[in-house]
Structures are given as structure tokens and as C-alpha cells.
């Protein structure tokens, strides 16, 4: 016979978990478990089948169900895909070294909008100004919720009900939902497209300039490339044109970087400083792409334009919270020492691993897996990682992977088991192999991977 809800809730083990989980949730779990058992019993088709009705099993099921119901929907996962700025898996990771400062700003009062020197009201936007000015040599700075918001705010402030000129080759869609033409429409600016998809000349921009033109815009097409017979106007030439007609030139860099990563074997991408030096009046970029900080949209450039943006009511709706300000300032501070930045900002660290370092990481993981004696073919192989986040689309970075082909299990079944396991391992499958790219796996996650593999092969 099945126990009653009252019998289960009176059990010592259940009473114990009531200190951790809300009573209503535990009750719901008990009712569900008993209900499930009841329907299993009524679905029995013959006398040989049995349902496990033991009291201990029911209590255990109730505890597990309560745990699952109370766990957060947003869970830690292990990224074994090798894609560093993985948009689906949370993009950038913050550096461990800033956790005390981050927790302090979250759990204690701060001078968020208070000027300590004067003892009066201050502005949340002042905290990032000095560091960003130092890094970019820009006159002024404004930080908003994300780069989409930054572009929206810039266009709304400078070109509402007026015209903004953009090259046809740069009308991109990024991240599945950000489209330059749609953002333009939302901002109230009128999009004036110039040139052809593969070719835009300076005179195309110049011919389109009218009394109504308030912005010349360049979009860094970070997630696709037009190859072959192409021509694009560089920000330098566009800036000369902007000065001639006294129209601000804005560049949406997408993934903002402060370090020229070509020094570390990646392709050249313009840095924020390059863009400013070449004459852009306003530059916008993301905080959580290759920069490696929290989600944010950073606007740098000429003071006269940024002052206008600060007064725009839209800024209030797009404003960043204190956790973002804290994480961003602490991340940007690391860039003042490039070596420290490369070492301590996870995104940069992962992008700049030497192949020997990856080989060593792969060997360490393989040695731990080998002890399990799994019924599978397991090897270290060469592979390719990606930057991700729509950055450097053609860049494939050499990496080392652990490739696993189970002897008695479908490889997609293995993938599913590990994805749904408590450690939530997300990896790729190809060529009938389950592939773990060590680039994006932390060494302190190795034991979890080994444990989950052992369970999956049982
Ligand atoms: C990614 C990207 C954006 C959007 O940035 P979010 O920070 O994701 O809002 C805008 N423009 C370009 C060129 C991008 O690459």
C-alpha cells in the first residue's frame, strides 16, 4: 500500500529538508511522487510486473524532486565546445580576482551616485570615466546595458528624424536579433543606404550627404566577411569626409578590444584606440565579447556628443546597474597592464593559449579518464576552436581535443547523458566522436567530467 502524504511528511529525513526548501514545495513534491506511483500501479498490465512502493524509495524520490524544483533555472555548465565567447553559454566569464570587490558592491552600500568629496549627489557614470579615458584616449565615456542599446542611443541622440548614411555592405544582423536597419528604425533615424553589397566608394557617401545628414556610420562586420571583389571605406577616410562636412562619424565596432591580438597569433582586429586614432567621433562596443567583461555597451568619443547622450531620457531606460559598473571597472583596470590582462581575464587567457599548453591540458584530462577503463576508443586529436560571439568568423584556432567513441553506446546518447548530467557538459559530436575541446574547460572541472563519464558508461 502507498503511504499517505502525512506519513511521508512526518519522516525524519523529510523534516530535515524542510529547513532548506519551502514547505509548500516539499508538499507538492510528495503529492507528485505518490501520484506517479499510483498511476504506475494502475498501468500495470500483468501480475509479473511490479512497482517499487518501499517507503525509503518514496522518501528518496521526494527529496530529489524537492531539490530539482528548488534549483535555479540558470545553471553552471561545462563548456567543452572550444567556442570561447559562447553566446548561448553566457559569453564572457569574469576574472576570479574581482570576486571580493564584486560581492562587496552587491552586498554593501556604495558611492554609486554619491560624490564623497563634496558630500552630495553624484553620477553613476563617473566611475568608469578615468579608466576608459586612459585606455582609449577618448574625451568622454558613457556605458549602457549592451552594445545594441549603445547604437540605439547614439542614433536616437544624433539623428532622430534625420538621416544616417551606412554602406549596404555593412547592414548586418548579429547575434540572431540585432539588425542595423531595425535598430535604426527604432531610434527614429532614417537609414540612407549607399553603395553595393560588395563595393562602396567614398563618393557614394559624399553624394548622399544632404542638409538632413546627421551621422556617417561604419559598422564593423564582425560576423561575416564579403570576400573577393570588394571595396570598403576605412574609418580614416570616412572621418576626413565627416570633418569636411562637419558631420559626426560613428563606428560600431561590435566586439571591442584593447589589445592587438595579432601579437598572439590571431588575426588583426581594430582596437578601440585604433578607431579613435583614425578619427572616429564616436565608437561603440560590447563589454562581454572579446573584451571579457560583463554585459555592457560602451560608448566613447567626443565630449560634445556624449554630453547630449547623457541628457537623453533614453539613457535612463538603458542604464547599467552597480554590479555591471563594478565588474567592468575591475576588468578594465586589468588592461592597464597588458600581461596581467592576458593572464587574468578568462576570455583573453583562453584565446591566447599556446598549443603546448593545450596539449598539456589534454594530457592531464586524458590521464584521468584512462583510469576509468571505459569501453571506448579515446584519443587526443587536433581540432579547431572558435572565438565566438560573432567575432572573427573565419578564424579557426588550432586546439587539442579528447575524442571519445563508445564501443557499446550511440555517441549521441553519450552526448545527451552528459548534457543532462549534474555537471551539464556541453560538447560537440562529429565523425561519430564525442569531442571535448580543452581550451574552454577549467582544470578544476576535470574531476566532474571524469565522474560523469563513469556514470554515463555504467
Ligand atoms: C554583437 C554586436 C552588436 C550587439 O552587441 P550586444 O552587446 O550583443 O548588444 C552590435 N553591433 C555589432 C557589429 C556586433 O558585432
From TrEMBL:
* Gene Ontology MF, one: L-seryl-tRNA(Sec) selenium transferase activity
Cofactor dependence? pyridoxal 5'-phosphate
InterPro entries (alphabetical): PyrdxlP-dep_Trfase, PyrdxlP-dep_Trfase_major, SelA-like, SelA_trans, SelA_trans_N_dom
Q: Where is the L-seryl-tRNA selenium transferase N-terminal domain?
A: 2-34
Instruction: Name a Pfam family for this protein.
Output: SelA
Catalyses which reaction?
L-seryl-tRNA(Sec) + selenophosphate + H(+) = L-selenocysteinyl-tRNA(Sec) + phosphate
Name of the protein:
L-seryl-tRNA(Sec) selenium transferase
Q: What is the lineage of its organism?
A: Bacteria, Bacillati, Bacillota, Clostridia, Peptostreptococcales
Amino acid at each position: 500500500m502507498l503511504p499517505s502524504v502525512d506519513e511521508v511528511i512526518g519522516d525524519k529525513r523529510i523534516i530535515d529538508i524542510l529547513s532548506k526548501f519551502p514547505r509548500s514545495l516539499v508538499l507538492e513534491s510528495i503529492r507528485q511522487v505518490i501520484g506517479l506511483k499510483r498511476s504506475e500501479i494502475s498501468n500495470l498490465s500483468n501480475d509479473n510486473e511490479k512497482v517499487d512502493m518501499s517507503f525509503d524509495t518514496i522518501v528518496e524520490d521526494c527529496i530529489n524532486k524537492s531539490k530539482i524544483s528548488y534549483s535555479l533555472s540558470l545553471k553552471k555548465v561545462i563548456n567543452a565546445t572550444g567556442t570561447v565567447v559562447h553566446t548561448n553559454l553566457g559569453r564572457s566569464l569574469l576574472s576570479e580576482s574581482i570576486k571580493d570587490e564584486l560581492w562587496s558592491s552587491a552586498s554593501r552600500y556604495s558611492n554609486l551616485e554619491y560624490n564623497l568629496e563634496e558630500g552630495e549627489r553624484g553620477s553613476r557614470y563617473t566611475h568608469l570615466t578615468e579608466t576608459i579615458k586612459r585606455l582609449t584616449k577618448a574625451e568622454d565615456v558613457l556605458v549602457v546595458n549592451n552594445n545594441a542599446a549603445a547604437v540605439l542611443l547614439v542614433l536616437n541622440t544624433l539623428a532622430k528624424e534625420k538621416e544616417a548614411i551606412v554602406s549596404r555592405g555593412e547592414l548586418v544582423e548579429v547575434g540572431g536579433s540585432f539588425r542595423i536597419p531595425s535598430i535604426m528604425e527604432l531610434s527614429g533615424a532614417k537609414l540612407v543606404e549607399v553603395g553595393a553589397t560588395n563595393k562602396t566608394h567614398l563618393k557614394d557617401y559624399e553624394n548622399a550627404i544632404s542638409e538632413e545628414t546627421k551621422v556617417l556610420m561604419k559598422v564593423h562586420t564582425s560576423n561575416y566577411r564579403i570576400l573577393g571583389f570588394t571595396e570598403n571605406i576605412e574609418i580614416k577616410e570616412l572621418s576626413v569626409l565627416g570633418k569636411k562636412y562637419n558631420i559626426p562619424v560613428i563606428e560600431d565596432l561590435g566586439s571591442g578590444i584593447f589589445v592587438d591580438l595579432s601579437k598572439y597569433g590571431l588575426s588583426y582586429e581594430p582596437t578601440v584606440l585604433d578607431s579613435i586614432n583614425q578619427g572616429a567621433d564616436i565608437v561603440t562596443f560590447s563589454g562581454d565579447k572579446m573584451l571579457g567583461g560583463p554585459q555592457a555597451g560602451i560608448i566613447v568619443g567626443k565630449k560634445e556628443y556624449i554630453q547630449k547622450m547623457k541628457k537623453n531620457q533614453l539613457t535612463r531606460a538603458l542604464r547599467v546597474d552597480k554590479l555591471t559598473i563594478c565588474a567592468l571597472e575591475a576588468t578594465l583596470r586589468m588592461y592597464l597592464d597588458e600581461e596581467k590582462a592576458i593572464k587574468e581575464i578568462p576570455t583573453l587567457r583562453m584565446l591566447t593559449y599556446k598549443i603546448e599548453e593545450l596539449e598539456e591540458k589534454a594530457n592531464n584530462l586524458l590521464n584521468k579518464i584512462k583510469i576509468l577503463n571505459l569501453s571506448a576508443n579515446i584519443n587526443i586529436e587536433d581540432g579547431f576552436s572558435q572565438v565566438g560571439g560573432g567575432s572573427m568568423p573565419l578564424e579557426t584556432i588550432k586546439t587539442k581535443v579528447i575524442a571519445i567513441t563508445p564501443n557499446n553506446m550511440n555517441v549521441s546518447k553519450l552526448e545527451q547523458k552528459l548534457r543532462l548530467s549534474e555537471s551539464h557538459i556541453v560538447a560537440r559530436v562529429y565523425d561519430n566522436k564525442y569531442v571535448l575541446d580543452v581550451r574552454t574547460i577549467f582544470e578544476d572541472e576535470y574531476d566532474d567530467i571524469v565522474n560523469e563519464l563513469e556514470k554515463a558508461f555504467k
